[in-house]
């Protein structure tokens, strides 16, 4: 049976992460989701893809904020940087949000599922109601939080990051609306689709850079079986309305067990390994 595995936030610019990512095992019959923030440069992306591409049947990539940072080539920023990374992925036959979404066929009693790779960004709406983007950034700053995206994630040619987010939402909604009513989905986005999944205990006011309220109901609207995200560096399995949400980050070395490393945090997201819990059950944390 073909499985779908997932891991995000590899941050291979850090030597310890680079070393453990190189040890990811081969699963030649399985599909692998790379959920963003693999690194910050084209070289980082190439390292990850050259490492894992020979080991899996099919690979998916979605961008995170770190990949979109303007770095070694100032001319490559915003949409141009994203498009360049898409080109790199295609060199390795890795599927991106710009490619058709494949369907993993039914396998025995396990139904068919469309793997929808998304790139949605954020619009600063994950904050107290009534705050606009500038007010949300000020609210975060009052709590001592200033995201590096404000300096390093340029939205060119869009005037703002929230304008880029709006364009991505419009394009992605059209694609999802075009799916057939019987099709079930596995939604993949670097940023979480729901604010109530953003449990940032040490930096609670980081949420403006974590998603958009426009996607709060997408797990129902688009018939999701599973929703996969990263970004938070808070590995967990959650359930909302009977739908499973998987946060699949590796994170920084202080945030994972070095004895397990990247191989130990590779998560099977399909087929499901556990049934839905009781309605009021809390999250299942992945240590």
Verbal overview:
The structure is a single chain. This protein is of the alpha/beta class and 287 residues long. The protein has a single domain (4-275), classed as Purple Acid Phosphatase, chain A, domain 2 (4-Layer Sandwich). It has nine helices and eleven strands. The protein has helices spanning 15-21, 42-52, 65-68, 78-91, 133-142, 149-152, 161-177, 218-221, 261-265, and strands at 4-7, 27-34, 56-61, 103-104, 113-117, 185-188, 224-229, 236-240, 243-247, 267-270, 284-285. Strands 4-5-6-7-9-8-11 form a seven-stranded mixed β-sheet. A hairpin with a 2-residue loop joins strand 8 and strand 9 (243-247). Helix 2 packs parallel to helix 4. The chain is globular, with a radius of gyration of 18 Å. The two termini are 27 Å apart. 41% of the residues are buried. The model has no long low-confidence stretch (mean pLDDT 95).
Span of the ends, CA to CA: 27 Å
Tally of discrete structural domains: 1
Helicity, as a percent range: 25-40%
**Strand pairing plus helix content: what structural class?**
alpha/beta
Approximately how much beta-strand content do the residues carry?
15-25%
Mass-distribution shape? globular
What is the CATH C-level name?
Alpha Beta
Instruction: Write the element-wise H/E pattern from the N-terminal end onward.
Output: EHEHEHHEEHHHEHEEEHEE
The radius of gyration is: 18 Å
CATH architecture annotation: 4-Layer Sandwich
Strands, total number: 11
Could you list the spans in which at least 5 consecutive residues all have pLDDT below 50?
A: none
Widest β-sheet, arrangement of strands = 4-5-6-7-9-8-11
The profile of the biggest β sheet is:
7 strands, mixed
The total count of helices amounts to 9
How confident is the prediction overall: mean pLDDT?
95
Query: In the CATH scheme, what's the topology name?
Result: Purple Acid Phosphatase, chain A, domain 2
Q: What name goes with the CATH superfamily?
A: Metallo-dependent phosphatases
């Amino acid at each position: 049976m073909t499985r779908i595995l997932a891991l995000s936030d590899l941050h291979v610019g850090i030597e310890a992460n680079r070393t453990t990512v190189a040890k990811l095992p081969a699963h030649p019959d399985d599909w692998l989701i790379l959920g963003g923030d693999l690194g910050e440069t084209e070289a980082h992306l190439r390292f990850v893809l050259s490492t894992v591409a020979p080991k899996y049947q099919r690979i998916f990539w979605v961008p995170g904020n770190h990949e979109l940072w303007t770095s070694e080539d100032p001319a490559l920023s915003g949409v141009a940087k994203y498009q360049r990374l898409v080109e790199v992925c295609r060199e390795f036959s890795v599927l991106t949000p710009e490619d058709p979404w494949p369907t993993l066929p039914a396998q025995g009693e396990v139904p068919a599922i469309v793997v929808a790779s998304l790139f949605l960004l954020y619009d600063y709406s994950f904050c107290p109601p009534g705050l606009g983007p500038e007010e949300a950034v000020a609210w975060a700053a009052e709590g001592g939080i200033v995201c590096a995206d404000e300096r390093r994630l340029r939205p060119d040619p869009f005037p703002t990051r929230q304008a880029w987010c709006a364009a991505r939402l419009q394009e992605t909604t059209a694609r999802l609306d075009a799916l057939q009513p019987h099709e079930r989905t596995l939604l993949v986005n670097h940023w979480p689709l729901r604010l109530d999944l953003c449990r940032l205990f040490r930096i609670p006011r980081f949420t403006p850079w974590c998603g958009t309220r426009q996607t709060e109901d997408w797990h129902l609207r688009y018939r999701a079986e599973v929703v996969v995200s990263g970004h938070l560096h808070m590995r967990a399995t959650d359930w909302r309305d009977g739908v499973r949400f998987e946060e699949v980050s590796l994170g920084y070395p202080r945030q994972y067990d070095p004895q397990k490393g990247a191989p130990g945090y590779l998560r099977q997201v399909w087929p499901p390994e556990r049934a839905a819990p009781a309605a009021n059950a809390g999250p299942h944390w992945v240590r």
